Amino acid sequence: MDKLRMGVLGCSGHYSLRVSTPLKSSLLIEPYAVASRDAAKAKKYAKTWGFEKSYGSYEDLLSDPNVDFVYIPLPNHLHLQYIKKAADAGKAILCEKPLCLNAKEAAQAASYCQKKKVPLMEAFMYRFHPQWIRAYEIARSGELGEVMGTGGVFSYDNKDPSNIRNIASAGGGALLDIGCYTVSSARYLMGAEPKKVVANALRDSAFKTDTYVSAILDFGNGKSSTFTIGTQIFPYQRVTAYGTGGDLSIDVPFNMYGDVPGVVTVSQGVGTRVIQTEIADQYLLEFDSFAQALIEKTEVPTPIQDAINNMAVIDALFASASSGKWEAVAKL
Fold first, then answer.
1. Confidence of residue 190 (pLDDT cuts 50, 70, 90)
2. Domains identified in the chain, total number
3. Residues 78, 188: one domain?
4. 163 pLDDT exceeds 90?
5. Residue 293 within any structural domain of the chain
6. 163 in a structural domain
7. Could you tell me if 59 and 160 lie in one domain?
8. Sheet holding 247-250: strands in order across?
């Protein structure tokens, strides 16, 4: 079977650091073309990371009939624009998280691609890792009793003013960059959508981006999730789920290494056990799962409504951080 030819919009540091090496093992995907608004930069990037073709504009790549699907790791504020352009070109789309800047844009992107009959998926790689699949199975099995809540922490330290994550106009800030993970994982483990949220946020006086956020997601019936995220504090991450009969935790929930087993720690009345899941690269699993859906012409593995729902929660968190009050989560 011929591999699907992938086009990448942008000379992404994320792609070169985390995706390029795993994809060398893919039996389904060929990194075929890369585009930049700087042709020389694209040519150098293509040579370094093994792309056959390079283009000096995103539009030129999208017009290449040999490109089967595109991966969009562009800055957040460009996602909707290039989702639409890729859809116009008839290309299937795997777009980095967050899908768009807000739920209204996410719903617009989903509707646009549906009308163009083009598959669209948000790239949340963590859900493909065996440690998360096992954690989800445990949470849903009843082994923890009734899951009443989750807690999450995700942080890093980045004070570079030129970094895209610190540029407000490009969709930078903690909630959009890493809060999307803590919201997504809470919804995933709870198996439900929060009804209302409350958040407290600290903003950088120069960047104008949110740099530290603490939040509560209220799922109703006494169930809630809490999380803390930060972009200017010590790097740390952890997710825990609490039930009436036990709890589980994942020590490296999001930036999991691809060359060591995943670890899920489960505690119940009879004791604590440490579950090691198979060694796997979550980016390879994510990209291959997306490609497999394209090949088999089935639904993409992460439904696009999930992206819309995640953005609706983030919208409510931004509103709460501004109002200082509980804010309802809109349904789109």
1. very high
2. 2
3. no
4. yes
5. no
6. yes
7. no
8. 271-277, 262-268, 247-250, 232-243, 147-157, 223-230, 210-220, 196-203, 327-328
Rounded to whole angstroms, the Cα distance separating 211 from 182 reads: 15
Question: Which amino acid makes up residue 216?
Answer: I
Asked whether residue 1 carries a pLDDT value surpassing 80, the answer given is no
Q: What pLDDT does residue 116 have? A: 98
Q: Which residues are within 8 A (CB) of 149 and not within 5 positions of it... i.e. 6 or more apart?
A: 190, 223, 224, 225, 226, 241, 242
Residues 310, 187 contacting (CB under 8 angstroms):
yes
The mean pLDDT value of the chain amounts to 97
Rounded-to-integer distance, Cα 230 and Cα 258, Å: 24
Closest CA to 93 of 122, 115, 116: 122
Residue with tokens 């169930």: 223
Q: In percent, how much of the chain has pLDDT > 90?
A: 99
Domain containing 155 equals 130-284+311-328
Helix, strand or coil, per DSSP, at residue 20: helix
Distance between CA atoms of 94 and 89, rounded to whole angstroms?
14
pLDDT at 210: 98
C-alpha to C-alpha distance for 301 and 129, rounded to whole angstroms: 13
Taking the CB of residue 30, how many other CB atoms lie within 10 A of it? Answer: 17
Centre a 10 Å sphere on the Cβ of residue 22 and count the other Cβ atoms it contains.
19
Tell me whether residue 49 is in a domain: yes
pLDDT 10s digits, 36-49? 999 999 999 999 99
- Is 183 a domain residue? yes
How far is residue 62 CA from its own chain's centroid? 23
Residue 38 φ/ψ, nearest 5 degrees: -115, 105
Question: Is pTM beyond 0.85 here?
Answer: yes
Residue range 266-309, pLDDT digits in tens: 999 999 999 999 999 999 999 999 999 999 999 999 999 999 99
